[in-house]
Amino acid sequence: DMQTQMEEDSRQHEELREQYGLVERRCGVLSTELEETRGALDLTDRARKILEQELMEMTDKYNEVNTQVREPGPMEAPGGLQSPSFS
């Protein structure tokens, strides 16, 4: 009876050891995936910041050009029509 209990304990111990090994390997895989995901997130965040900066610059340039187009020049009347010139 004592021998049977020891064999059962030994078998359970071995099963737990195998389960621990599986969990440890899975943890390693997940850790690697986490690091890869963090790296991808970092690259994406940097790209987003660059694109935001480019958008701000393009918006500023658009507004500048739009303002220049809307301002009447020295030969234009306020409505955008050219004043007649008499030579």
Automatic annotation (TrEMBL):
InterPro entries, from UniProt? XRCC4-like_C
Sorted alphabetically, the Gene Ontology cellular component annotations on this record are:
myosin complex
| Tagged with keyword Coiled coil | yes
| Keywords assigned by UniProt, alphabetized | Coiled coil, Motor protein, Myosin
Q: Where is this region: Disordered?
A: 68-87
**Where, if anywhere, are coiled coils annotated?**
6-68
Superkingdom: Eukaryota
Query: What name does the UniProt record give this protein?
Result: Uncharacterized protein
